[in-house]
Structures are given as structure tokens and as C-alpha cells.
């Protein structure tokens, strides 16, 4: 299914006068509305191919219908999102789930939807049907060199697919770790992993980046071999200038100050980018901004400050991706909500009165510093985000269009009600 | 496969002289060795039918081989455990996974292995292939009365199977809850759940108990409708004298003082019993005693104190069960380790100098109170536990026998290497 | 120091035209602006007498200056807050820190500032210089009946002072608990505490309420004898209809779903009210809304829903109080920020489209339910809150007036720069 | 008060025959009893000068009596501990609380008790009466260069005192951080702190080490500028080879895997040593081993493995110190319990069958790996620790001697019942 321009435009027409009033009001309240809108238009959030279907837990999965059955249909789904919000112009593939049969065909299809290929993702946390050696006890950390080699080779193969599609980065998330005390030697596990990562790093094209993601726990419940930002930074520092640390918001211990981690990684020039989601307990993989929207804003506040301090380009110099699981919502609706939450937080961090904040900080005026942050956060920037969408050709209200045009119903008609997309 | 008495006895002979020495030493150190051994022999831990196969996470599952393919084979597995340790003389079934075709046959089979049927477990957290209505948005809490009725009827059916087998209790674990703020009305969800539980309660035979288990989170990641002991106690108090609160060690928020909860539930006469396991992060479902053995001891300390204060029978008046998931270990070996850890903690709590502890508490002598607890915990009671096993006809070293007799290899031969047991 | 009406009015004049524009815009966006404003005007947040000075941690305290040296000066401080925001019209006293020499004088003074006396607070977590028996090992839980009696008598004395001043409730926060395993018998500690609370309850005037506050940990680091809402509810249920459970936002284990607790306590008719603050790690006692503003909104969402369902009066039927510690901010500025955050969250919960939410819940439309909550939260209601302040005679921008009028400088001049208020 | 050799020997005589039997039994169970005893005798745990008095929380302090009033009396107290357990042969001073009037006198006094001077501790988390600039908003991170300089100068002064006394290391624990979002710029705070640390580092004698301690939170409740091991490692890596990372067991987020951190710091050659204590919730500063003794054992397991892998000397190459707060126990009794818990965990890690563990790890035999760890932990090594104490001239049962000889009563007689030692 493809959403026609007219359908979106018709919907926009209905909401336009109200929107104009709101947009005018907010533009009057802040100084840099036009600048913010331009940055919002440039800002694209990659959608992972595995988040287009219903997610599950170890206790079960309750699938919806019309889920994409192939890479082509995944691209079609993201095309729908991008048509609606103008901010989902990239796709992140997962190998082996998304091996393209013909890369040129896939590239053309993506281009038709205005999508580029973001980071490629390898998978050494599951055993595939035809796989020689098992990852039950880890992959890059494994005590058996042959298993490590298999994991390295797989990553090199992923790079190959990525090159064909025009991707420029590889995300390595390892579930390697241990479930019981004594199961592994932490030092040897680290050194094995480092050795394996080095072999992959050596195969990296010169214009590629390697992202090393960390996670505190799950699916291993005692230790993880890339367990926190400190460990990831150790690896990426030893690997070299093409290696960076990837932050997933749900991969921390309770109460971690993620925004500080972001600021320090930026300071070190080692921040890769983000896997956005939200959570209350662990790696709950909920809709971005659905639980702790203020934390999301604080993270963007550090991103804008830190990237500006290094003259980085907001849109291009870090990798922005959603990594969520949709257990009880329609995956596409969930992704629309997630992108919206990201754009709102980004917009709020862009309207923050940064010079005044520096002044307050220099005076240890904690009260004023808080006022400045809260002023930006309490400002209703939805009309600015909508204006950016409008100018980018998207919908003023993507969710309404999605429902009014019966997108899901159409997908079910096309694909059936019993489809199950690959993914978690 | 059935382990012959001789195999166990042969193994015991080899270890006997060493064991005797150890047993003598420890018997000399404590006053009540014989009494402790008797209590240990009486103490039986139920094995859940779903913990006999390899467990998994949402990220994958790495099955071993020789897993039971039927209820009969599950009984056989628990029979093996019970033959080895003499402390696993009960089985806890899960419906619909374990619906018996012929209850009498199953009862006889269990009796041959010396097993009785512990609490029956219902399942309204998954959709079964032939199920009319979905539990995607809850079961007993559901906004739709028809879904609630389906869940109630299922529980009543579970009671029916339990009656046929001689079980005397029903465990209700509900995953009901919500994944996002606003998804449900907490009060209405509670009242719907209470109404549903009441209908099940009304169907309870007069000599049955109903266990209402609580859990803080997972698979719902925002709220759970029976979320903590306080909520469970609210339900069970409103339901009536046959309703009790079940504690699973992994179902709490970080740092919860579980032993205090146990003491208070005992005080209220509302403790049902336990699902034993261990965890570092969440409901990790690890081997009992593998992460926080001292906490396990402290819990048993409260159990012994509180049960004695109410003149309860340790072995019969509460329900003792393991509920763990075996992702990287052989399930049967894991269960042997879990039962051992439980028996050790129970033994340590039995040798604790309780009168001295009361005296120290009455004097606010915190140092001495700690000394008394640590003395019991630091005492090596393994020989006492082994002696109890020996007298019950079990093995001095169950794990060694399991490995030396190549139990798993035999099971694989009998059942194949690609079996997958039902369960999580 | 007293802020003159003119000073506030002058400041309001300067900001009025801007405010009018903002107020008009928001009034146009929501249906019930006038109704919301009325409710906001009625809503009063009590200020605790001990939160007017600089707080500290066990590591130290960095006092500011001009802190109140007497009960009279504390009333003066709250009078300043109330003059500025029109929403701080109540004071909560702490005995023995605030024993009035002449109750009538104090009552008159409070009345001059438009203040009433909210809940009285007892203190059995510290030893006073002239105290006979120590609370080192608890107060109402103590193994020694004489200590328990001392604690009971103190609470009865607090009621006496409260009656003289016109208060109608007693808040009992007990730090009772234990710091090490074995230190106390949980059951006996509970029963002793219940017995003590019953004696205080018996001394309660018929039109009074007793609030039993719970706390997970600190200053005891192993167990707390009123440790969570479940325990508090057990006490208050056993005590009788005048006993209620008090919620302090910082008194929970990590990740607790406080809004669900609030809903259930309201359902049971046992919610006393709140101690508002915010926190990232433990009982950090930070400015309300400074860390998790969305959680605050979700709590108010439950309050409004649950109180309306029971036809309760928002302003009068629960006790609203701030309980924070101001370590790095001016205490009065901090309190202004806290009250503002409360009013914003309350306003957002009042504009929420509740009928639509019920409909979405009944349809299990999780996406729409989230949209409705987020719409309310993302709406900029500051102009509505300001309008309520304006109509109540307060300042459009309380913080600006506080700074422009050099309130703190004046207080330092009057009271000196080395004063230290009683409190934590 | 000084404990005479005879008093200890008399007590030992009474317990000797029982001890001999126990020692014989355990020596028979393990292969390396003599080697373990030698290592235990060499192992000395430093006692911090500030842990000799009653600790407190922000809610209050309940002092005992007989607390040391001077540096001399602190040395006397540690002398008592060392006489009793033979394992407390070092003292760690805190400046400005412990500024020696005459270093030679103090050195001689310590030598008489067999004590050496461990790491010196600076204090920039409190304001001293005569201090020019305040640390309210941090010290080494401060936006004002003059404050940073004051903090640097203080640390350099601490080094000076340490040199006079024969100490060889400086521990820098900074409470620097922020309490509210926006209060500080994380990057600038880091860089200021690094600059300050560099200035102190430059003043370090060539044979000294600098320990940079990290802490997740408290007394700052939003961010800490040396907040986790990753941050500390960043600092110490940038500082140079004399800088190391210090681990305090209570300074982590919930559920952190501290033993893995230890292993990685050892791998990097950057582990300074330990501040031992225990905790259930936060930095509770409880008696070592009182809450999570298995975690303590797992940490020692990594220490022994990692130090042996680098051919390090257990006793000398890392700094071992207790850092606890004694709120409800006699401080000296508490310290005796803490040292005992450390020695037990160390002994258990020394008897662990390490070759078998490596073999199990190489076979991914998780069950056996757990068996090996638990075997060591479940072994009752108290008689070995006691034997080490006996040979070192200490008491078989230090606590009994302490009580029987009425040490505290004597100290109260000498020093009075109203003394309060400096400290937290």
C-alpha cells in the first residue's frame, strides 16, 4: 500500500487553519522558530526492520495482522511512515533476517520511498537453522576459537551486504556474557571479544564506522561482556578511530544518569548514536517518550550542547534509530508516536535559552538553570514539529491519516491477518 | 529411564566413609542434628512440569536434548530427581500443557515414582491455538466480560483436572496489567480481577486452597494488576479463608526485603508458600541460591520462626515449589542444585540458636544477633543434608550419580536430541 | 518582611499584556478553562515548617542566610510564599521543633497571613536533649514497653498542640526498623507498633484523622516497620476509619508504580494525602517535578479520576503537602518551584479528555489512550496556572518578584546570615 | 586502654581444644591449609580513623560512649582491634580531622601498636570553619578557579602530612556533582576536575599512588562528577601510571556486577583497592558481609584470580580498607565483625579449586563451575581464620575477649560517656 500525496494533503487542509493559529502563537513565543523548523526537517530517524511486526516476551506474543512478510514489504511499511511524518527516511537492516536477494532492486525500491540504509545489524545472539556452531555460550567471547571465527565471519558478511546497499556502519550488539557466577572468566571473555572485534574492525571499509552497543543484562542474567558504557568505551578506544559506542536507552542499571554518559562520550569523540525507546523496569522497549519524556529531553539537551561544542551536524554526525518492541500496539502507530516524541524533545532542546543557561551555571544559580530547562520543556512545541512535517510533505496529524485511510486494514487485506514479521 | 537402587547405593558406598566423618563432625557441633535430619527428610519440594526443558528468553532459546515430550516423561524426569535426592516428591502441573488423557494412569505412574500432585497452575497469559477470545489485553481484568468468563472457566477446568489427580490447590498467576500509562483504569482492573477470582473461588472444593501470586512487572511493563504482596493480600483477604498469597522470589522490585514480607504474611495467616529461584536483575529465574544464598537463608529463618510461632507443620502447611528457567544448564542438573540449596538454607535455619536470638533481640544486642545468624549460615551443613538424603534412600552426591550414570545421554537416546518440552 | 500588595501588582502590570495573550490562547484550546482556574484557586499546598531552612545530608550542610529562627518567622516565610502564589495557604508543624508558646498568638499570626494549620507531625526518630529513653532502637516498635509509652505520650502531646491551633490531623512517620538481619523480630515489631498506634488512635479527637506514612528505607537500612503501602494499609485497616495511609513520593523502592498505589488506596477509601517531592535515587527530597514531571502528572491523573469517582472534594478531602530538602537552592525559591510544578500537573490532569480516555480504555485502544494523556501533558498550561494566581491576588511570576524585591537579602538583614532553621 | 597479651592468651586457652579439633577437620578437607593461613596472616585491613565513633544519618545520630577524642585515642582504638585480630595493622587518616600536631610522636605511637599509615584522605565535601571559599557547588569541578585551587592546595597539604607519617597514597573522594538537571555542564565539570586532579598528581611523590574513588550518588542526587568506574578509569588513564581507581562496595547503582568491574580494572592494571562495607539499598555503609556475603566472596574470587594472573602480592599490591558507618552497633565490635567477614571471604577464595574451575569454564560446564564456587563458599573456614589469628598473636574469639574484658566500659571510664568522634 502506498499513501497518495492527495490523501495527506486533504487531511492537512482540514487541520490547516487551526494549525496556522498554533504555529503563529508558538513562533511568536520563541526567537528561533524558523531555524528550529529547518533542523527538524533535516533530522531523520532510522526505523529498524525488525520493529515492524508485533513484539513478544518470553511469555508469549499476541500478533496483529498485515505484518510485512519480506524485506520489500518492510521497506513499504517504512515508506508509509516516512510519507506520513517526513522524518523516517532511513532503514536499519538485520542480517540474516533481511538478506537482500538482489541489492540493486532493494536499493531502487528504498530510493522510491526516499529511504537510505542506516547501520547494518549482525546477529550472533541466536542460532540459525543451518548454523554450524552454537552461540549458547557466547559468540565473540567464546572459549572456542572456531565459534569466535564464525561470529567474526558473520559480521564481515553483514558488512558485505551493507556495502552493496550503501550503508556506512555496522552495529555490533553482543548478548555475550554469563548467567551464573563462575561461568566465565571476565578478563578472558573481554580479551576474546576484543580480539574478535579487531578482526571485524580490520574488515571495515575506510569510510565505515563500527558501533559497539552495551547492555547491562538480558538475555544473560549475571554478567554481560559489553555491559556498560565504560566497557564499550574500553573496546572502542582500543579498536581505533572508526569504532564508537552506541547508547540504547533501555540498556542501563536502574536510575543511571544517561544524559551524563552521553555528554562524556561526546566529549571523548566516541558517541555513535542512539537506539531510542523507553522503559520503566528494564529493557522494556516501550514507545519513545511514553514513560520518562523529561529524561528524553535532558538527553537531547546534552546532545545539542555537546554536538554544537564540537561543530557537529545534528542530522548526519550521529546515528539516530528507534529500537522498540510493540507488544500491545499496532507497530506502525507505535513508531509514529515514537518519532513524534523524538522530534518534540529535539525541538524543546533547540528552543532552550542556552546562553542564559551557561550564565546561570557560571553563577551556580541552580534555580534559574532549572527554570530555563523547564521553560523549554513546558513549551508546547507540537505546532513547530507539525509545521516541519508539513513543509517536508508529511501529514499535520500522521496518526489520524493512518487511521482514516485504514492503512492497517489495507495491509491486512494485502498480506493476510496471520503474518508474522521476523524480529523479537 | 529409571535409576536403579543399586546404582545409587554403589555410588554411596564409595563416598560413605568420607561422609561419615563429615556427618560426625557436624553432628558434634550442633545440638539438634537428629531432629534436623528428620525435618529434612519430611521436607519435599515440588517440581514444576514446565521446568524440565530448556528455558528461553525473548532473544532465543538454545535447547539441549532428551527433554520430556509428554506428561508421562515429565513424571519420569521428576522420578529421577526424587530417586536421587529424596526431596522432590511432588509435581506441579500446568494446564493446558499437561492435560492428562487418563487421570488414573497418570496418578498410578506418579505413585510408582513416589510423587504426589502439588498445586495446579492455570494459564491465561497466552493464547492457545483453539482459544475463542484473546488475552492480549488481560484475562481476569479484561474490560470485556466474555474474556473474563473465559478465564474463569479455564481456571474451573483446571480445578477439575486437579481433583482427578488428587491436587489440593490452584495457583493463579495473572500477567494482567498494562504496558503504557492510560491503558487501563487501575481500579476497574482490580475490581474486575476480584470479581473473576471470586467466581473461581466459589468453584473451589472445600478442602482446596487458592494461591494468588503477585509479580511486579513482566510481561507487562507499566503496571501489573496483582503487582505486589499488598495487592495480593487485598485480594486474598476479600476472597476468604481459602485464599492465600504466593511468593515468588523473583517477582519484586529491586532491593525488596522479601523475608519481612514472608514474616508479615505468616503473621496474617495468609502465606501460601513459595516459588523458589534466584535473580540478580529481575525475574531472572536462576538456580535457587546461586546469587543470594544469604537472602534465602534469611527467608527460611523467618519461615521457621513464623511457622513455629503458629504451630505449623514445616513440611505440609505451606506449598514449596521451584520455579526456575534453565537457559544454559541441563534442566535436571539445575533442579538438583536448586533443591540442594533449599535444603541447605532450611538446615541452617533449623540449627540457628533461636532462644539466644530472642534474648539478643530483647537486649537490642545487634552484634550478637548478627553473630547468631552468621554462625548458622557459616556452618557447613552439607553433611547433614546428605545424611537426610541417605536415609531417604537417595544419593550422597546426586549430581555425580546423574553424570556417572549418563542420565542425560540415556534420555537423549530414548527421546531424541531435538525434543522441546512445553514451558517458557 | 511582608510583601506589599502593590509590589506584586506592579510586577503583574508589567507582565499582564503578555499573560493575557497566553491565557487567551490556552483558554481557546481547552473546553473547561474557567472550571480549571476555579479548582486551581481552591487548591492549597501545605508547607512544612522544617523545609524553610537549608537541608543537609550526613556529609554536611551548606547553610544560606536569613533562615527563620522561630515559629513566628516560619509563619512569616510561608506568608511570603502565599502572598506570591496564593497556593501555600497552610502550614504543617513539627513537634518538638515548633511548640507554640502561646497558641492564640500563633493562630492570629497565621490568620493574618491567610494560613491554616495542616497536619501535625510528631518526632520519634531523634533523641531530644531532655528525653528519658532513647529511640536508637525504635520507638513504637521498641522491645521495651516504656519506650513505646514515651513515644505514644509524645504523639498524644502533639495532638494537644494541634487541637489548640485548629489542626485536624496527625502524621505519624516512624523511622522504626532495623539495620541488620536478626536485629528484630518483624512480627513482634509490627504488633508492638500496632499496639502503640492504637493507643494514639484512641486519643484522637473524633473529627481528626491519623496519617500513617510508610517508607522503604533510611534511616534504617535493612528493614522498616512501616515499609510500604501494603504494611501501612494493614495498620490503618486494623486501626479504624480515622486512620489513613500517607504517600511520600520518595519513599519507594526503585521503579515502583506510585500512581497505581494511589488509585488502589483511593479505591479502599484509605488515602490520606501526599508528601510531594522528587527523586532520582532514593528519598532525595528534591524539588517537586524536577526529575520526573510525567510521573507527577500520572499521579494527579489518578487522583482526579479516583476522587471524582468517589465524589470527593479535590481541595479538602486529601492532605497536600510538600516534603523536600533544599541543599543547594534558596528554600523559598525551591518551594515556589515546587508549588508551581504541582499546580501545573494538577491543571494538566484537569484538562485531560476523560470521557475519551474511558472510551479508549474500553476499546483497548492503547495508542489513543497514550495520545490523550500526552496531549494533556504536552499542553502548556502555565498561563492557566498564572491566571489562577492572578485572581487569587498572587504574582504572575512569583520567582521574579521574589528576586526583584530582594526578599532573601531583606531576610538576611532582619535575621542575620548565620541563622539555621530547625529541620533536617 | 591496652589489652594485655595474657588476657588474650587466657581466653585462647579456654577455646583451644575445641579450636584444634575444628582446625584439624578443616585442614583435612582442603589441600592448602598452611598456605592459606600464611596468606591470611599477611593480609592487613586498614581501619579508617573516622569509623571509630558512632555514625549517623541526616535524621540523627545516637552516640554511644567512650569514643576517641583525639588522633592518639583513635590509634589506641585500632591498636585494640589489631591486638585482638592481628589483621587491622593499618590506619587511614582523614584531613583535616586528623592533623597530627607532632608527626614523630604519632608515628611512634602507631609503631607501638604495630600499625602503619595507609592511604591519606582529603576532604573537600564539607566546609571547615576557617575555610575561605565554600564547596557548596563542588570543589575540583567548581566553575570558579579559586575554589578549585583551594581544593588542590588542600590535597597537596594532605600529601605533606602523609609524607611525614610514612603513608604512600592519597585517596581522593569527591562529592562533586549536581543535584538538579541543568545545574552544571557535565563536560566542563569533568574537564575542571581533570585539571585539578592533574595539579595534585603533579605534587605526588614518585613512590606514591593516587586513588580516585567513584560514587554513583549522594550527597549529590542528580549527577556525580566521578560517578562510576568508567569515569574514574577515564580520569586515571589520563592522569598517568600513579593514578588508580578505588572501589567502594556501596558506591554503585542497584544490581551492579562489582566483581566484573574488579576483574576489568585489574586487567587494565588500574585497580587501587577497596573500601569494604555492605549495603542493601544505597551507600548504607553496613558491616562487611552482613547483607551479601556471597557477593563479597565473588569479589575476592576475582581478586585472587586477577592478582595471581599478574603476579601481584595479595597483601601489599592493593589497598584494603573498611569504610563503614556504625549507627546501631559499638564501632569496635562492628569493625571486628567486618574484618572477620573479609578474612572468611578471602580464605574461601583461596581454597577454591581454581584449576578445576578453569577446566569447567573451558568446557562451558556451568553446573560444575557453580559447584566449585559453592563448595568453597559453603566450606566452614572459620577455624582457618582463627588459626591465622592465633599464630599472629590475636584472639581465637576477638568479640568474646572484647566483651569479657569490658573494653567499651573501660573506654567510657577513661574518656567519658558523652564523647563524639569526628566522622560521618
Which helices and strands, and how do they pair?
The structure is a homotetramer of 424-residue chains.
Chain A: H1 5-29, H2 33-42, E1 46-48, E2 56-57, E3 60-61, H3 71-85, E4 90-92, H4 103-112, E5 116-117, E6 120-121, H5 145-165, E7 169-173, E8 177-178, H6 186-202, E9 209-213, E10 223-224, H7 229-239, E11 243-248, H8 258-267, E12 271-276, H9 293-309, E13 319-322, H10 331-351, H11 354-362, H12 366-378, H13 382-391, H14 398-404, H15 407-415
Parallel strand pairs in A: 1-4, 4-5, 6-7, 7-9, 9-11, 11-12, 12-13
Antiparallel strand pairs in A: 2-3, 8-10
Helix pairs in contact in A: 1-13, 2-10, 2-13, 3-10, 5-6, 8-9, 9-10, 11-12
Describe the structure.
The structure is a homotetramer of 424-residue chains. Chain A is built from 15 helices and 13 strands. With 424 residues, the first copy, chain A, is of the alpha/beta class. The first copy, chain A, has a single domain, classed as TIM Barrel. The longest helix of chain A has 25 residues. The radius of gyration of chain A is 22 Å and the shape is globular. The two termini of chain A are 24 Å apart. The mean pLDDT of chain A is 97. Chains A and D meet through α6, α7, α8, α9 and α11 of A and α6, α7, α8, α9 and α11 of D. Chains A, B, C, D: Keywords: Isomerase, Manganese, Metal-binding. Chains A, B, C, D: GO terms for molecular function: isomerase activity; metal ion binding.
Amino acid at each position: 500500500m502506498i499513501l497518495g500525496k492527495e490523501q495527506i494533503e486533504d487531511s492537512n487542509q482540514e487541520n490547516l487553519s487551526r494549525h496556522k493559529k498554533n504555529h503563529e502563537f508558538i513562533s511568536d513565543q520563541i526567537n528561533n522558530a524558523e531555524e528550529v523548523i529547518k533542523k527538524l526537517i533535516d533530522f531523520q530517524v532510522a526505523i529498524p526492520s525488525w520493529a515492524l511486526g508485533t513484539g513478544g516476551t518470553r511469555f508469549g506474543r499476541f500478533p496483529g495482522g498485515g505484518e510485512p512478510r519480506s524485506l520489500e514489504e518492510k521497506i513499504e511499511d517504512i515508506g508509509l511512515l516516512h510519507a506520513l511524518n517526513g522524518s523516517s527516511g532511513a532503514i536499519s537492516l538485520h542480517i540474516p533476517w533481511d538478506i537482500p536477494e538482489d541489492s540493486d532492486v532493494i536499493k531502487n525500491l528504498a530510493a522510491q520511498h526516499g529511504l537510505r540504509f542506516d547501520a547494518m545489524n549482525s546477529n550472533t545472539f541466536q542460532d540459525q537453522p543451518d548454523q554450524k556452531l552454537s552461540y549458547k555460550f557466547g559468540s565473540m567471547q567464546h572459549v572456542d576459537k572456531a565459534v569466535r571465527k564464525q561470529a567474526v565471519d558473520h559480521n564481515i558478511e553483514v558488512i558485505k551486504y551493507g556495502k552493496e546497499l550503501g550503508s556506512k556502519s555496522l552495529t555490533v550488539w553482543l548478548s555475550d556474557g554469563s548467567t551464573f557466577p563462575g561461568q566465565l572468566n571476565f578478563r578472558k571473555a573481554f580479551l576474546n571479544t576484543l580480539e574478535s572485534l579487531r578482526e571485524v574492525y580490520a574488515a571495515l571499509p575506510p569510510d565505515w564506522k563500527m558501533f559497539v552497543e552495551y547492555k547491562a543484562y538480558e538475555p544473560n542474567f549475571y554478567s554481560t561482556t559489553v555491559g556498560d558504557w565504560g566497557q564499550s568505551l574500553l573496546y572502542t578506544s582500543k579498536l581505533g578511530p572508526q569504532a564508537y559506542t552506541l547508547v540504547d536507552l533501555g540498556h542501563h542499571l536502574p536510575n543511571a544518569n544517561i544524559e551524563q554518559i552521553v555528554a562524556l562520550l561526546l566529549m571523548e569523540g566516541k558517541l555513535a548514536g542512539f537506539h531510542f525507546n523507553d522503559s520503566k523496569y528494564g529493557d522494556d522497549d516501550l514507545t519513545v517518550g511514553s514513560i520518562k519524556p523529561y529524561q528524553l529531553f535532558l538527553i537531547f539537551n546534552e546532545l545539542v550542547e555537546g554536538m554544537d561544542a564540537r561543530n557537529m551536524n545534528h542530522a548526519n554526525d550521529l546515528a539516530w534509530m528507534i529500537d522498540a518492541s510493540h507488544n500491545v500496539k499496532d507497530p506502525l502507530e507505535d513508531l509514529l508516536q515514537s518519532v513524534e516524541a523524538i522530534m518534540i524533545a529535539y525541538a524543546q532542546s533547540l528552543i532552550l535559552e542556552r546562553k542564559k543557561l551557561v550564565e546561570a551555571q557560571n553563577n551556580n544559580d541552580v534555580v534559574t538553570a532549572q527554570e530555563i530547562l523547564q521553560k523549554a520543556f513546558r513549551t508546547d512545541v507540537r505546532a513547530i514539529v507539525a509545521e516541519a512535517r508539513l513543509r517536508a510533505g508529511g501529514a499535520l496529524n500522521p496518526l489520524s491519516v493512518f487511521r482514516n485511510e485504514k492503512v492497517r486494514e489495507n495491509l491486512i487485506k494485502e498480506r493476510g491477518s496471520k503474518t508474522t514479521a521476523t524480529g523479537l
